[in-house]
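Narrative of accomplishments. A recurring question from our advisory board has been how the design workflow behaves on a single, concrete structure rather than in aggregate. To address it, we present the structure tokens for one chain from the evaluation set, followed by the sequence designed for it. No filtering or post-editing was applied between the two.
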């Protein structure tokens, strides 16, 4: 009888230990999930710029605001990570362009020549390659010859497809700062698969694709107002 009682006590102790271990593992798992959720929310707060929802006198939503250097530069930083298309609407009127790109479409009259570009779109515009190359491109565009990590290897890599000359001295950052430019920022969203070209053609590939499978793209237009 004593052996049987001891055996029952040992079995009960094992069951209690297993139960306690299960509860501990479950608690640690929930704690990890909660910590990851908090980190994800923090990342969203860092990665996205929120625009106040302004309403006009008719109650219509207006997605425009007046911004300066402190808003434009962080948005450009995010262009390659957040799939933004950033358009500088009247930069040409000010005598500037962002960069030049070699036209590689044989059907175009400027084939093989460098043409001026006034927007940033990581979906188009030459072969940028890896995320590291995209970041180098953005940094060179922003800070021109003052980008301290720019070197001969980078110059050789990009020079076959791009020219940065117009913004070389201090880049876009320097141009905006020196001219004290203020911008009207307009925000819109479209689906890449349904976008039409400048000639109005194209954009049919995504018409029969479920919306959940389409690639959403945010377009931000900056118009210089001073």
């Amino acid at each position: 009888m004593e052996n049987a009682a001891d055996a029952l006590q040992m079995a009960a102790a094992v069951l209690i230990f297993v139960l306690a271990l299960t509860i501990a593992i479950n608690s640690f798992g929930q704690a990890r999930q909660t910590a990851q959720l908090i980190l994800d929310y923090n990342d969203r707060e860092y990665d996205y710029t929120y625009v106040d929802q302004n309403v006009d006198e008719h109650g219509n939503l207006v997605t425009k605001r007046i911004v300066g250097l402190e808003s434009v530069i962080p948005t450009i930083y995010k262009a390659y990570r957040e799939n933004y298309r950033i358009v500088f609407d009247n930069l040409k009127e000010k005598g500037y362009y962002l960069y030049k790109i070699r036209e590689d479409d044989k059907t175009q009259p400027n084939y093989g020549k460098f043409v001026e570009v006034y927007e940033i779109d990581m979906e188009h515009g030459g072969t940028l390659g890896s995320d590291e190359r995209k970041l180098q491109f953005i940094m060179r565009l922003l800070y021109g010859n003052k980008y301290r990590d720019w070197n001969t290897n980078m110059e050789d890599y990009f020079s076959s497809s791009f020219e940065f000359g117009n913004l070389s001295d201090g880049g876009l950052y320097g141009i905006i700062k020196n001219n004290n430019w203020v911008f009207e920022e307009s925000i819109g969203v479209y689906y890449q698969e349904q976008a039409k070209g400048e000639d109005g053609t194209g954009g049919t590939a995504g018409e029969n694709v479920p919306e959940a499978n389409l690639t959403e793209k945010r377009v931000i237009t900056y118009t210089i107002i001073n």
